[in-house]
Design goal:
Number of helices: 8
Number of strands: 3
Oligomer: single chain
Number of domains: 2
Order of helices and strands: HHHEEEHHHHH
Strand order of the largest sheet: 1-3-2
Radius of gyration: 20 Å
Strand content: 5-15%
Length: about 230
Protein backbone atom coordinates (compact mmCIF):
# COMPACT_ATOMS: atom_id res chain seq x y z
CA UNK A 1 0.00 0.00 0.00
CA UNK A 2 1.37 3.38 -0.93
CA UNK A 3 1.36 5.83 1.94
CA UNK A 4 2.18 9.49 2.40
CA UNK A 5 2.25 12.07 5.16
CA UNK A 6 0.33 15.20 4.42
CA UNK A 7 -0.07 18.57 6.03
CA UNK A 8 -3.33 18.98 7.89
CA UNK A 9 -4.24 22.26 6.27
CA UNK A 10 -5.00 23.79 9.69
CA UNK A 11 -3.83 27.21 10.90
CA UNK A 12 -2.97 28.42 7.40
CA UNK A 13 -2.78 32.18 7.00
CA UNK A 14 -5.43 33.97 5.01
CA UNK A 15 -4.18 34.39 1.46
CA UNK A 16 -4.28 38.03 0.31
CA UNK A 17 -4.76 38.95 -3.30
CA UNK A 18 -4.39 41.95 -5.54
CA UNK A 19 -3.04 45.19 -4.12
CA UNK A 20 -2.50 43.81 -0.58
CA UNK A 21 -0.14 41.11 -1.86
CA UNK A 22 1.64 43.64 -4.10
CA UNK A 23 2.32 45.85 -1.09
CA UNK A 24 3.73 42.88 0.84
CA UNK A 25 6.03 42.05 -2.06
CA UNK A 26 7.20 45.65 -2.33
CA UNK A 27 7.96 45.82 1.40
CA UNK A 28 9.81 42.50 1.26
CA UNK A 29 12.06 43.34 -1.66
CA UNK A 30 12.82 46.92 -0.60
CA UNK A 31 13.82 45.75 2.88
CA UNK A 32 11.14 47.90 4.49
CA UNK A 33 9.70 45.05 6.54
CA UNK A 34 9.78 44.06 10.21
CA UNK A 35 10.76 40.61 11.46
CA UNK A 36 7.14 39.84 12.31
CA UNK A 37 5.96 41.02 8.90
CA UNK A 38 8.67 38.93 7.24
CA UNK A 39 7.40 35.79 8.99
CA UNK A 40 3.86 36.57 7.89
CA UNK A 41 5.13 37.10 4.33
CA UNK A 42 6.90 33.73 4.29
CA UNK A 43 3.84 31.91 5.67
CA UNK A 44 1.57 33.57 3.11
CA UNK A 45 4.02 32.77 0.29
CA UNK A 46 3.92 29.08 1.27
CA UNK A 47 0.13 29.14 1.46
CA UNK A 48 -0.14 30.76 -1.98
CA UNK A 49 2.22 28.15 -3.45
CA UNK A 50 0.21 25.29 -1.91
CA UNK A 51 -3.02 26.82 -3.24
CA UNK A 52 -1.57 26.94 -6.77
CA UNK A 53 -0.33 23.35 -6.47
CA UNK A 54 -3.72 22.19 -5.21
CA UNK A 55 -5.56 23.90 -8.07
CA UNK A 56 -3.24 22.35 -10.65
CA UNK A 57 -3.45 18.90 -9.05
CA UNK A 58 -7.25 19.03 -8.94
CA UNK A 59 -7.43 20.07 -12.59
CA UNK A 60 -5.18 17.12 -13.56
CA UNK A 61 -7.29 14.78 -11.40
CA UNK A 62 -10.59 15.99 -12.86
CA UNK A 63 -9.27 15.75 -16.43
CA UNK A 64 -8.17 12.14 -15.92
CA UNK A 65 -11.38 11.10 -14.16
CA UNK A 66 -13.25 12.30 -17.25
CA UNK A 67 -10.96 11.30 -20.11
CA UNK A 68 -8.41 8.63 -19.08
CA UNK A 69 -9.21 5.20 -20.58
CA UNK A 70 -7.40 3.24 -17.86
CA UNK A 71 -8.97 5.22 -15.02
CA UNK A 72 -12.47 4.90 -16.43
CA UNK A 73 -11.91 1.17 -16.97
CA UNK A 74 -10.83 0.81 -13.33
CA UNK A 75 -13.79 2.92 -12.15
CA UNK A 76 -16.20 0.58 -13.94
CA UNK A 77 -14.63 -2.53 -12.43
CA UNK A 78 -14.51 -1.00 -8.94
CA UNK A 79 -18.20 -0.10 -9.21
CA UNK A 80 -18.96 -3.74 -10.09
CA UNK A 81 -17.42 -4.65 -6.71
CA UNK A 82 -19.57 -2.10 -4.88
CA UNK A 83 -16.99 0.68 -4.74
CA UNK A 84 -17.16 4.26 -5.93
CA UNK A 85 -14.55 6.60 -7.41
CA UNK A 86 -15.08 10.36 -7.49
CA UNK A 87 -13.47 13.66 -6.53
CA UNK A 88 -14.55 13.22 -2.90
CA UNK A 89 -12.34 10.17 -2.36
CA UNK A 90 -9.38 11.32 -4.48
CA UNK A 91 -7.91 14.26 -2.60
CA UNK A 92 -5.00 16.55 -3.46
CA UNK A 93 -2.83 17.13 -0.39
CA UNK A 94 0.59 18.50 0.51
CA UNK A 95 2.90 15.56 1.29
CA UNK A 96 6.04 15.47 3.41
CA UNK A 97 7.41 12.36 1.69
CA UNK A 98 8.76 12.32 -1.86
CA UNK A 99 5.91 10.27 -3.32
CA UNK A 100 3.22 10.97 -5.90
CA UNK A 101 0.30 9.53 -3.95
CA UNK A 102 -1.06 6.94 -1.59
CA UNK A 103 -4.02 4.75 -0.73
CA UNK A 104 -5.66 4.25 2.63
CA UNK A 105 -8.65 1.87 2.93
CA UNK A 106 -10.42 4.31 5.26
CA UNK A 107 -9.43 7.65 3.74
CA UNK A 108 -9.29 6.83 0.03
CA UNK A 109 -6.69 8.05 -2.47
CA UNK A 110 -4.29 10.92 -1.89
CA UNK A 111 -2.47 12.77 -4.66
CA UNK A 112 0.65 14.62 -3.52
CA UNK A 113 0.11 18.02 -5.08
CA UNK A 114 3.70 19.11 -4.36
CA UNK A 115 5.22 16.11 -6.20
CA UNK A 116 2.96 15.26 -9.13
CA UNK A 117 4.52 16.53 -12.34
CA UNK A 118 1.95 16.40 -15.15
CA UNK A 119 -1.46 15.11 -16.24
CA UNK A 120 0.21 11.86 -17.30
CA UNK A 121 1.96 11.50 -13.94
CA UNK A 122 -1.39 12.00 -12.18
CA UNK A 123 -3.00 9.43 -14.50
CA UNK A 124 -0.36 6.81 -13.62
CA UNK A 125 -0.65 7.63 -9.92
CA UNK A 126 -4.44 7.39 -9.82
CA UNK A 127 -4.33 4.15 -11.83
CA UNK A 128 -1.81 2.70 -9.36
CA UNK A 129 -3.93 3.59 -6.35
CA UNK A 130 -7.15 2.38 -8.02
CA UNK A 131 -5.58 -1.05 -8.42
CA UNK A 132 -5.00 -1.03 -4.64
CA UNK A 133 -8.65 -0.10 -4.16
CA UNK A 134 -9.73 -2.88 -6.54
CA UNK A 135 -7.60 -5.39 -4.61
CA UNK A 136 -9.03 -4.15 -1.31
CA UNK A 137 -12.58 -4.76 -2.53
CA UNK A 138 -12.00 -8.03 -4.38
CA UNK A 139 -9.43 -9.79 -2.19
CA UNK A 140 -10.00 -8.21 1.25
CA UNK A 141 -6.30 -7.35 1.56
CA UNK A 142 -4.62 -7.32 4.97
CA UNK A 143 -2.22 -4.41 4.43
CA UNK A 144 -0.12 -5.38 7.45
CA UNK A 145 0.52 -8.83 5.95
CA UNK A 146 3.72 -8.35 3.97
CA UNK A 147 2.77 -10.88 1.30
CA UNK A 148 -0.60 -9.23 0.74
CA UNK A 149 1.05 -5.82 0.59
CA UNK A 150 3.77 -7.00 -1.78
CA UNK A 151 1.28 -8.66 -4.11
CA UNK A 152 -0.86 -5.56 -4.48
CA UNK A 153 2.21 -3.39 -5.04
CA UNK A 154 3.48 -5.72 -7.75
CA UNK A 155 0.10 -5.63 -9.45
CA UNK A 156 -0.24 -1.85 -9.13
CA UNK A 157 3.19 -1.09 -10.59
CA UNK A 158 2.79 -3.74 -13.27
CA UNK A 159 -0.67 -2.73 -14.49
CA UNK A 160 -0.84 1.05 -13.98
CA UNK A 161 1.57 1.93 -16.79
CA UNK A 162 4.05 3.70 -14.51
CA UNK A 163 6.80 1.22 -15.44
CA UNK A 164 6.38 1.61 -19.19
CA UNK A 165 9.64 2.26 -21.04
CA UNK A 166 9.10 5.97 -21.73
CA UNK A 167 8.34 6.68 -18.06
CA UNK A 168 11.50 4.92 -16.98
CA UNK A 169 13.59 7.05 -19.34
CA UNK A 170 11.92 10.43 -18.73
CA UNK A 171 10.77 10.18 -15.12
CA UNK A 172 13.21 7.76 -13.48
CA UNK A 173 16.31 8.21 -15.71
CA UNK A 174 16.52 4.44 -16.21
CA UNK A 175 17.98 3.46 -19.59
CA UNK A 176 18.09 -0.32 -19.30
CA UNK A 177 16.04 -2.14 -21.93
CA UNK A 178 16.34 -5.86 -21.11
CA UNK A 179 13.75 -6.87 -18.45
CA UNK A 180 13.41 -3.17 -17.58
CA UNK A 181 9.68 -3.44 -16.91
CA UNK A 182 10.08 -6.35 -14.48
CA UNK A 183 12.95 -4.65 -12.65
CA UNK A 184 10.96 -1.41 -12.32
CA UNK A 185 7.99 -3.30 -10.86
CA UNK A 186 10.19 -5.21 -8.42
CA UNK A 187 12.09 -2.08 -7.35
CA UNK A 188 8.94 -0.10 -6.67
CA UNK A 189 7.27 -2.98 -4.83
CA UNK A 190 10.26 -3.39 -2.53
CA UNK A 191 10.37 0.36 -1.77
CA UNK A 192 6.72 0.29 -0.76
CA UNK A 193 6.97 -2.87 1.37
CA UNK A 194 9.96 -1.38 3.24
CA UNK A 195 7.59 1.32 4.54
CA UNK A 196 5.27 -1.30 6.07
CA UNK A 197 5.68 -1.17 9.89
CA UNK A 198 5.90 -4.99 9.95
CA UNK A 199 8.88 -5.06 7.60
CA UNK A 200 12.28 -5.27 9.28
CA UNK A 201 14.52 -4.14 6.42
CA UNK A 202 15.14 -4.03 2.68
CA UNK A 203 16.30 -7.65 2.64
CA UNK A 204 13.03 -8.90 4.10
CA UNK A 205 11.07 -6.76 1.65
CA UNK A 206 13.01 -8.29 -1.23
CA UNK A 207 12.41 -11.84 0.00
CA UNK A 208 8.67 -11.27 0.37
CA UNK A 209 8.39 -9.71 -3.10
CA UNK A 210 10.25 -12.68 -4.59
CA UNK A 211 7.99 -15.16 -2.77
CA UNK A 212 4.81 -13.79 -4.35
CA UNK A 213 6.29 -12.56 -7.61
CA UNK A 214 5.18 -15.22 -10.09
CA UNK A 215 1.53 -15.40 -9.07
CA UNK A 216 1.09 -11.66 -8.55
CA UNK A 217 3.02 -10.40 -11.60
CA UNK A 218 1.00 -12.71 -13.85
CA UNK A 219 -2.34 -11.76 -12.28
CA UNK A 220 -3.59 -8.97 -14.57
CA UNK A 221 -7.16 -8.73 -13.27
CA UNK A 222 -9.26 -6.79 -14.20
CA UNK A 223 -7.22 -6.39 -17.41
CA UNK A 224 -6.79 -9.09 -20.02
CA UNK A 225 -3.12 -8.10 -20.33
CA UNK A 226 -0.65 -5.47 -19.12
CA UNK A 227 -1.72 -1.91 -19.95
CA UNK A 228 0.73 -0.62 -22.63
Amino acid sequence: MSTSNSSSGQDKPEIPSGFTWFRMLAAKYTGNITEEQDEIFRNVAVARKEARQCKTCESYRDFNLKWSPIINFMKENIEKLGGNVNTRNIECVNCTETVAGGFNPEQGIMLCQNWVQSKKHVEDTIAHELIHLYDELKFNVDWFDLKHHACSEIRASNLSGECRMMNQIVRYRQFKFVRAHQECVRRRAILSVIANPNCKDKEEAGRVVDQVWDSCFNDTRPFDEIYP
